[in-house]
Design goal:
heterodimer, A: 455 residues, alpha/beta, 4 domains, five-stranded parallel sheet, 25 strands, B: alpha/beta, 4 helices, 38% helix, globular
Chain lengths: 455, 149
């Protein structure tokens, strides 16, 4: 992150936190983006990032960054190292928004005028030459498989929660302990939760096995002697390095691999000081085991709100809700809208390595296409309007998949933005007046072609 | 008696079906010479009038080959083509033209074999239907009264 704050190009980078894009209009080279930035209630210019305001705050709420496993104050930093290094005040938790006159944080702040309860949301407008969508992914909601006991049985965690437990800046300072505070003598890792499952997510997320083996490795160092059970449907570790994690996990005397048949038959119940897991293995045998902790590896899903964002950007989504790439094999860093690029798991489940490659590809596209002083090349295959013949019926506007057609102020005639138009010709076929010309595929050209081949 | 050789005009979208036909060509898969392709950028470009004009100019059958649903290079052009094809079939019925003479199918860039199969099917179907009765086309005023089902 240092590069972004202090690097050579830092003056070209503006970070907008607590912000949400509300509207995007325009085309490659000329987008206008409207952004709603909610109030932080702390002045980012005045604040020195000392964090003195946090300790006196009397309100504690679940910490989202720790997946709800720890707590944070109503005024807090998202995590150590978050940018900007300025706390935010959460009005949903703060006592002042509940009618009380608390100002402990403001009093604790050593720089006057930094905590501003009067702050309000702002609507910002920025112009941009291109847009990269990098909204990431979320996890399949394990409550959709209630027999797994997630959110009802105490020591059943998602992989993200377990990740926070292992992190040195996590709620336990990196100690792997059960909710009762004891180091577990056994951990069961359930792979393929919701994935490879026609009833939920038919695809393999492709990253879970690798991190599950990483868990195995870390458990071995943090809780020596703890048993690790891998319950899986399929094991998938592609690439030139991942197999070593698998070898490491499989070679450990403390780990056991169990292939289950159907996650629908896998039941997790509270049992004494742990969980009892019943399953049917690949050979059809019913069996059970006891584990002090259970870690679920849920399928990777598009994040909430991506459908709305896609609609706003006019970017199509695939049947799973991920943003659709221009070409599945040849071009996964471009969306089907020119000037809107895709990076990371918003396009498909992927690991860090691939996300970074895709991000670099997107940046490369933009840097090569939007060089200072270059003229954008417009594809010659576009449509144009013969204004004299246009009756202003607006049919073309509704069929255009790229919102390339607009109307003059009086609404009389259509005009097509050649930068937005991709030349599909749907409007040409739809125009009842024959007023739209599909350049290089005109009606006359197609007719002449037909005449020649039918001669 | 010589065998009837139908003339089939096919509108192929640039990104999927035309590439599929090219794939068939590159693999040297034979397909009937009765099929005459016309490349369009998108199946959504196919104006229903093109189909009628093809019949008028001597085609015995018309094919519209599009990307598979969800795969359109232009997001939804193939859905437009499907809608227009549905409408066309109803109109063709009123003209007394069999629905088998106007076929929409999905051929992706990798489906050289499917391209050959649908084209061969179409040629055989239209061959068995016989030539299109040209006098009826383009002269609705002289059409015999149409019996709707």
């Amino acid at each position: 992150m240092g590069e972004i704050l202090h690097g050579e190009h830092a003056h070209n980078i503006e970070i907008l936190t607590l912000a949400e894009v509300t509207d995007v209009a325009g085309y490659l080279g000329n987008f206008t983006v409207k952004i709603l930035q909610t109030a932080r209630y702390v002045d980012t210019v005045r604040c020195i990032g000392c964090g003195e305001c946090i300790a006196p705050c009397p309100v504690s709420v679940p910490n989202e960054f720790h997946e709800g496993l720890g707590e944070r104050k109503a005024i807090s930093l998202t995590f150590a190292g978050a940018l900007p290094n300025v706390p935010f005040l959460d009005p949903a938790a703060c006592l002042r928004w509940k009618g009380q006159d608390c100002e402990l944080c403001r009093k604790a702040c050593p720089v006057e005028g930094t905590v501003q309860f009067e702050d309000s949301a702002k609507i910002l407008e920025r112009s941009a030459g291109a847009v990269i969508l990098a909204t990431g992914s979320t996890l399949f909601d394990c409550r959709n498989l209630p027999q797994l006991g997630y959110a009802s049985v105490p020591d059943v965690y998602t992989s993200l929660e377990f990740e926070r437990l292992m992190a040195s800046n996590g709620p336990t300072g990196g100690a792997i302990v059960t909710r009762a505070g004891k180091p577990p003598e056994s951990i069961a890792i359930v792979h393929c939760v919701g994935s490879l499952d026609e009833r939920h997510r038919p695809y393999c997320s492709g990253i879970c096995c690798e991190y599950a083996f990483k868990f195995s490795h870390l458990v071995r160092t943090k809780v020596p002697g703890a048993k690790v059970y891998h319950l899986y449907k399929e094991l998938v570790t592609p690439g030139k390095e991942a197999f070593s994690l698998y070898r490491h996990a499989a070679g450990s005397p403390d780990s056991r691999f169990i292939r289950y048949q159907d996650i629908g038959e896998l039941q997790i119940r509270e049992n004494g000081d742990g969980q009892a897991i019943r399953y049917r293995d690949a050979a059809g045998q019913e069996d059970s085991l006891h584990a002090a902790m259970v870690v679920l590896c849920p399928a990777i899903e598009p994040p909430r709100g991506s459908a709305e964002l896609g609609q706003m950007m006019d970017v199509s989504s695939d049947r799973f809700g991920f943003f659709e790439e221009l070409h599945g094999t040849l071009d996964s860093a471009q969306s089907k809208v020119k000037g809107v690029y895709l990076a990371g798991a918003c396009q498909a489940p992927m690991n860090i390595e691939k996300s970074i490659s895709q991000g670099m590809a997107a940046a490369g596209y933009i840097l090569s296409e939007l060089r200072d002083g270059t003229k954008l090349q417009v594809d010659p295959v576009t449509a144009s309007v013969n204004e004299g013949a246009c009756s202003g019926c607006h049919i073309c506007r509704f069929v255009c998949p790229y919102k390339a057609i607009s109307y003059t102020a009086e609404g009389r005639t259509a005009s097509i933005n050649p930068l937005l138009c991709r030349g599909c010709g749907t409007c040409v076929a739809a125009c009842p007046a024959g007023a739209i010309i599909g350049n290089h595929f005109t009606n006359d050209q197609i007719l002449a072609e037909m005449e020649a081949i039918l001669r | 008696m010589t065998r009837f050789e139908p003339k089939i005009v096919g509108f192929l979208c640039n990104w999927c079906s035309y590439a599929g036909a090219d794939k068939a060509g590159a693999a040297q898969m034979p397909y009937p010479a009765n099929f005459k392709p016309v490349r369009v950028m998108c199946s959504g470009r196919v104006d229903p009038q093109f189909v009628l004009q093809a019949y008028e100019r001597g085609a015995d059958g018309v094919m519209i080959l599009a990307c598979h649903p969800g795969d359109c290079h232009y997001k939804e052009g193939n859905y437009r083509a499907t809608q227009r094809h549905r409408m066309l079939l109803r109109m063709l019925h009123q003209f007394g033209i069999e629905p088998e003479r106007c076929r929409l199918d999905y051929v992706s860039a990798g489906e050289g074999e499917k391209f050959v199969k649908v084209v061969t099917d179409m040629v055989e179907t239209v061959r068995s239907l016989g030539p299109l009765r040209r006098s009826a086309v383009g002269a609705p005023s002289v059409l015999p009264p149409c019996s709707l089902p």
